[in-house]
Each structure stands twice: as structure tokens, then as C-alpha cells.
Amino acid sequence: MIEIPSDLHPDLVPLAFLLGNWAGAGVSDFPGAEKCNFGQEVTFSHDGRDFLEYVSHSWVLDSEGNQVEPLESESGYWRIDKDRKVEIVMVRDQGIVEVWYGELAKQKPQIDIVTDAVARTAASGPVGEKATPDVELRPYMSAHLKKVVTPEEVAAMAKSLGDMPDDGIAFFK
């Protein structure tokens, strides 16, 4: 169930499914760097204006799934227009700023985005689209994230079910 906050800017309703905390793990495999497993936490929030705030932290995981060291941090802002076009401005901890554009799919919670522009500070060093002379452009990090549901949210969902027959859902009550 997706709850749309009463103070969410009306333009952001199509992105309401993103609101909240997400967590998961994945694999980083960039040429020239050691392949590793990583954990990631992402938060999408809003303050009533016409954008979602995005914050992400990731860290290297050891073979037992324990946090070893920070990997990347990024933050940014997501907007959507009436034609379901999405724009994202993101800042990475390495001193890199990215602009992304994309579109929200119809009838499913999927957003396809591509990088439009990348800028960097002097301290960040050279930056490209993660391609090298020897390696084609390809994804270098992928993760599977799930929405984190707090006990309070579970209780609220159970309460909203009302009186239901004991069909396996009753344990929520």
C-alpha cells in the first residue's frame, strides 16, 4: 500500500512510491578497482515543495556481510513534470555533480534515466562515463534494494485492514 502524504506537492504524486527508506546490497565491479559486495541505504523525503530529496550511503561489505568501509555517498533532488518526465540533480562525495533525465513508466513503478551532464571539482580528478579505452560503457554497480518498513508502519497497515477473516492476515492485528 502506498500512502500519499497530505502535504506532498501535487506534482510529486507519481513519485510517492519512492518516499521512505530503502536498503539492500549489490556488487561493484569497475575496471581498475577491486570487485566488491556493497550495502546501500537510500532515503527519499519531501518538505512540501516540488521535489523529492534523495540521500544515499553505500559501504564495502566483507564476505560475512559486515560493513568494512564507506564506498560512496550522494545526495540530490528529483522532480517530475506533467508528462512524467523526470529530472535529477545529484552530487557525489568525490566532488562530482550529475544531471540525469528520464521518464516514469506507465502502469508500473519504473524510472528509466540517463546521464545528461557531468561536472567536477578540481579535487575530484578526471571523470567520465565509467568507460575506459579498454572497456565499453557498462553498469559498474548494481544493487537490489527493498523498502524498509518500520513496526509502526506495519501496525498502521494492519489497523487499516479492519475486521478480516482469519486467513493468515489476522496475525497483523
**Biggest sheet, in brief?**
8 strands, antiparallel
Q: What is the strand tally?
A: 8
> What percentage of residues falls in helices of 4 or more residues?
under 10%
**In percent, how much strand structure appears in the residues?**
35-45%
The largest sheet has its strands arranged as 7-6-5-4-3-2-1-8
- Distance from N terminus to C terminus (CA atoms, Å) equals 16 Å
Q: What is the general shape?
A: globular
The number of distinct helices, counting runs of at least 4 residues, comes to 1
Can you tell me about this structure?
This protein has 173 residues and is mainly β. 6% of the residues lie in helices and 45% in strands. An 8-stranded antiparallel β-sheet has the order 7-6-5-4-3-2-1-8, with no helix packed on it. It is globular, with a radius of gyration of 19 Å. The chain starts with 19 loop residues before the first strand and ends in a 12-residue tail after the last helix. The model is unreliable at 167-173 (pLDDT under 50).
Gist of the model:
The chain is mostly beta strands and 173 residues long. Helices cover 6% and strands 45% of the residues.
Characteristic terms for this protein:
disordered C terminus; mainly beta; single chain; 1 helix
Q: What is the fold's blueprint, element by element?
A:
Blueprint (H helix, E strand, L loop, with lengths): L19 E9 L7 E10 L6 E10 L5 E14 L4 E8 L3 E9 L6 E10 L20 E7 L3 H11 L12
Antiparallel strand pairs: 1-2, 1-8, 2-3, 3-4, 4-5, 5-6, 6-7
